[in-house]
Amino acid sequence: MAPVSSILLTALAGATLGSAIPHGPKIGTVVNDRDTTEVGPGKYSFKQVRNPKYTFNGALSIYKTYLKFGAPIPDYLEAAVANYTKGVSKRSTGSASATPIDTFDDAYITPVSIGTPAQVLNLDFDTGSSDLWVFSTELPSSQVNGQTLYNPGASSTATLMSGYTWSITYGDGSSSSGNVYKDKVTIGGLTVTQQAVEAAQTVSSSFTQDPDIDGLVGLAFDSLNSVSPTPQKTWFSNIKSSLNSPLFAANLKHNAAGTYDFGYIDSSKYTGSITYTSVNTSPGYWTWTSTGYKIGSGSFTSTSITGIADTGTTLLYLPTSIVTAYYRQVSGSSNSRTYGGYVYPCSTTLPSFTFGVGSARITIPGTYMNYGPVSTGSSTCFGGLQSSSGIGINIFGDVALKAAYVVFNGGSPPTLGWASKTL
After folding, report:
1. Which residues form the signal peptide (predicted)?
2. In 169-234, which residue ranges form alpha helices assigned H by DSSP?
């Protein structure tokens, strides 16, 4: 069987914009100033932008998570993704392949201005990585699928960091890598004039499938940065001294554009109080320990669940014992090797899932626990909660984050704050 990465590139390139590569890079997106609000000195809030071509597939989402965290890809997951991508290829007519399913979550991205004059790229905010890397004009055309490209040669403020490179290796053995530039980077109204911008010269095919994601803004800790010979500071590390407070808060939403608040906490976006928990920065992630869980109206089980808060991961990944206990309460559910994870009839009503933050509780409604149909029009749905056993790390991804207002406090020491909110 051909490697899944090759299948992804072949099938999904044809399924997005079949003529994207010959047309060259896209013109940058115009930033809508109404999506950015300066609340006060050192306080900014800006909205996410909907990604209209996001591809929904549970197996593909899990596959990307394995890649991201360097985990070996199980054969059954490769087969599930291969089966899906073959289906996409057959359905493709040369126009946009995947229309978002309106009753389920879309993906959201953030416009970022790089260089002088500004080149606007749509980037994914990722608290599970520490690199600001972008598709660039240094990529071969075969690795570009309609993404907007950063052109350092067109920026008067770009300076090549001679002798510096970056490289990230993924779970299937593929990698993304390239040169490093210092350039001006503005997100919302916040500007870092000398930000390390990692310009891709090669990109893993797993990233080429979505023409509207032009790279990532890593918001984890600097130690996780991949630049060699010296890791570089993240955009947040560089900007936080200019903020009113050295923090940002994620107010992600279910099936709607959320916001990121930098430098302040917006009390109108949560209910009750914020409960803070300590962060272990040694792995480089926003690593914290939950105090337990509850399924539906059942009793709370006190147990330590150490994991990371990751805006760049879609699903919620927890120990197998917890996942198994949850799906015992879901009528008709099964752990499907065909679909790559836990599935169930879409007509099934899912129980809520509650996790502990100290003595506080955050409840994810059952509707949030449904990732969506395994394919367009299917009556079988894919679970938003999956096992972390093959990945090697528990991940509180967007499924969990969308149920709370989450404060990433970069002070000394760093802490992570969770608060309930009106859903």
Report:
1. 1-20
2. 205-208
Catalytic residue among 131, 183, 210, 310: 310
- DSSP E strands in 144-274: the ranges are 159-169, 175-187, 190-202, 215-218, 227-228, 247-253, 256-262
Query: In the chain, what are the helix, strand and coil shares in percent, each to the nearest 5?
Result: 20, 40, 40
Residue 136 CA to residue 151 CA, distance in Å, equals: 6
Amino acid at 116: T
> 294 pLDDT exceeds 60?
yes
Largest CA distance in the chain: 60
Alpha carbons 46 and 341: distance in angstroms, whole number? 34
Report the C-alpha gap between 349 and 225 in whole angstroms.
Answer: 42
From the list 124, 126, 183, 398, the catalytic residue is 126
Dist CA 415 CA 265 (whole Å): 14
pLDDT at 147 over 50: yes
Q: What are phi and psi of 128, to 5 degrees?
A: -105, 15
DSSP codes of every residue in 281-347 = -TTSS-EEEEEEEEETTSPPEEEEEEEEE-TT--SEEE-HHHHHHHHTTSTT-EEETTTTEEEEETT
pTM to 2 decimal places? 0.85
CA quadruple 301, 305, 311, 314: dihedral, nearest 10: -70
Q: What is the mean pLDDT of residues 135-140?
A: 97
Count CB-CB contacts under 10 A for residue 289.
16
Q: Look up residue 397 and give its DSSP letter.
A: -
User: Is 310 among the residues known to form the active site?
Assistant: yes
Please tell me the distance from the alpha carbon of residue 282 to that of residue 279, in angstroms, as a whole number. 9
**Of the candidates 201, 124, 149, 116, the residue with the CA atom closest to the CA atom of residue 21:** 149
- Sketch out the chain's domains with CATH numbers: 4-250 (2.40.70.10), 264-419 (2.40.70.10)
Phi and psi of 376, rounded to 5°? -60, 125
CA 349 from chain centre, in angstroms, equals 27
Q: Give the three-state DSSP class for 237.
A: helix
Residue pair 217/238 in contact by the 8 Å Cβ criterion:
no
